[in-house]
Amino acid sequence: MNHKPVEGFSKLTKQGKIDWLVNEYLEGNSEYQHILNQYWNENADLQKLHDEFSENTISNFYMPYGIAPNFLIDGKLFALPMAVEESSVVAAASKAAKFWIDKGGFKTTIINNEKLGHTHFIFNVEPHKLLHFFNFNLKKKLMEATEDITANMRNRGGGILDIKLVDKTSEMPNYYQLKASFDTVDSMGANFINSCLEQFGKTLKQEVAVSEDFSHEEKNSLQIVMNILSNFTPDCIVRAEVSCKIEDLKDDSGISNEEFASKFKQAVTIAEIEPFRATTHNKGIMNGVDAVVIATGNDFRATEACAHAYAARNGKYSSLTHCTTDNGIFRFWIDLPISVGVVGGLTNLHPLVKFSLALLGKPSAQELMSILAVSGLAQNFGALRSLVTTGIQKGHMKMHLLNILNQMGATEEEKQHFVTYFKDKTVTHHEVINEFNRLRGQ
Known about the structure:
It catalyses: (R)-mevalonate + 2 NAD(+) + CoA = (3S)-3-hydroxy-3-methylglutaryl-CoA + 2 NADH + 2 H(+). Pathway: Metabolic intermediate metabolism; (R)-mevalonate degradation; (S)-3-hydroxy-3-methylglutaryl-CoA from (R)-mevalonate: step 1/1. The protein has 442 residues and is of the alpha+beta class. The chain has helices at residues 14-25, 30-38, 44-51, 89-101, 127-145, 147-155, 190-210, 216-221, 257-273, 275-295, 300-311, 351-359, 365-387, 392-407, 412-421, 429-439, and strands spanning 65-73, 76-83, 107-110, 115-122, 159-167, 175-183, 223-229, 237-245, 321-324, 329-337. The two termini are 39 Å apart. The protein has 4 domains: 9-52, no CATH class; 86-111 and 238-390, Alpha-Beta Complex (3-hydroxy-3-methylglutaryl-coenzyme A Reductase, Chain A, domain 2); 115-230, Alpha-Beta Plaits; 395-440, no CATH class. A 4-stranded antiparallel sheet has the order 3-8-10-9.
């Protein structure tokens, strides 16, 4: 089918957008209009709010919003909100929380809270000359030029922490950076950081233009390429950990505590040294992290990018979690770089985000960092516990069973039959189909 490009799509009404899509791409099938309408909120004002979160919106896309209870974090009990569609994520997190609740729970430490941004520029000048200019003139001017932008943030205890000149000319001709670190307190701070950086770019250009340190040719060579925050925040780190005596590890899988601890540590070590395993290992961690990130209105793409960059920081992709079994003590922990906020963005607008933050006791940004790291650690513990004992498919496929049955159009009575049927069996797609056909006499 050959489709025609559309002019002014964004200017069409919501109904106009839908009509065009259905007629141009869906052969005018009104059933698709009905599908979109089913997901509109009956409250017109609430629907309008959702429509304005993004551009060219025509409906809402639902995800399950679940609760993982019994998380003991730094002595406080939490129920974590999780927005996630993958089977067994909430169940695995809940099971891990319950496992650790009588063993002291999860302990967290904020290692650092710095966020970064850069002004990237090209300047055909000797590095020593630029460094002198930066130290004795530019750095002070950059701080002064952003005082109005940073005033409110400084009043809340944050602001610009430092600015450095970085010489990257060995990697790209005439390439330099102004690398700035920020404390954005309880906001994620993207807009604040980018506003500061854009002012850095303007100030750099202005100060070079009036400086007597550079020749006319050097001044003309200055090019501000871009001013942008970095989602890689290796200095915004939270540690979450659990520990107990190996003799207290009591697992119901039938293997001894010592064997469980040994196999668990081996599984983590494999993820530390083998990138193929580390990728799936860390994906499981982010199952737990992202589910809470989404539920609290934060940017899961940023947390993903940062976590995976951090996992490869030493030149080889590796596990985000680590384990030791020294002196009879089992210890399992994660160091997670993560930048989140509890003010601004969707946190003040989306009703379910407000609910999530209220459920968590209206945490500060640092407290939310701790909760997210714990969620990731719990998810990883649950996955590894299954992998080294019963295998991952037993629990995962039991959670996936209802998805298979819904696809096959099973009745509620048939669903209950299958839950009983697989009570002591591992669920497989093939076996579900066989039993379904037998049940219906096919």
